[in-house]
Specification:
about 20 residues, mainly alpha, rod-shaped
């Protein structure tokens, strides 16, 4: 959660990281 503009970018990366690390 940076400013708010890139709200989907961090979330998408977080999801990918979770799936990749799972």
């Amino acid at each position: 959660m940076n400013n708010g503009n890139d709200d989907t970018t961090p979330t998408f990366i977080d999801l990918l990281d979770n799936i990749e690390y799972s």
